[in-house]
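Here comes my example:
=====
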Amino acid sequence: MIIIPAIDLLNGEAVRLYKGDYDKKTVYSKDPVGLAKNFEKMGARYLHVVDLNGAKDGNTINIEAIRKIKESVNIPVEVGGGIRNAEAVSLYLDELKIDRIILGTIAVNSPDFVKEVLAEYTAERIIVSVDVLKGEVAINGWLQGSSVNYLEFIGELKTLGVKYIIVTDISKDGALTSPNWAMYEKIEGINVIVSGGVACEDDIEKAKNYYGIIVGKAYYEGKVDLEKCLKRE
């Protein structure tokens, strides 16, 4: 199991949203590069970076911050948020040399696009984000429903050849109420990264049955000793 610290970028700052609400943000750092370096120093083996502006509007205003983060650390970096066309995929994977990208909205709207990206870059470099609200996959920065059941969607992803998914219960994200474990127990046959609601070190321990877990607000709010958790990972 991999513990993956999260850096969510909004207008160049490291923030956390409450249940995906852009009007309920907390700024934790104006120096995301410094955060990334510190996570590496703690012993993190991977970094999770989300462009919240990109997720909402499809733009890339945080691209320089992401570039600097990638250049500042020697551990792999995965990036998501607004990657919805071939140009964005190439920008991250070819130009910035990001290790893995996360596809969200485009994976729901265009399975053929996912298939093409997998064929060109291999499944090791592609993650699909499954963002769930009341059993339905949400898109466009969690602001819109899709009427797609999350388990049916995951089944389609497995058929396409996707190996890695990040699954988030939006109602838990940033709420420090523990992940929706019942939701994860229904998922089989694919590498699952747990995301949303991590509240304590016991949650990290429970995630050992899965491929990985993303830790964000619980670290920023001092709820977990991330360095200690990383050392016993």
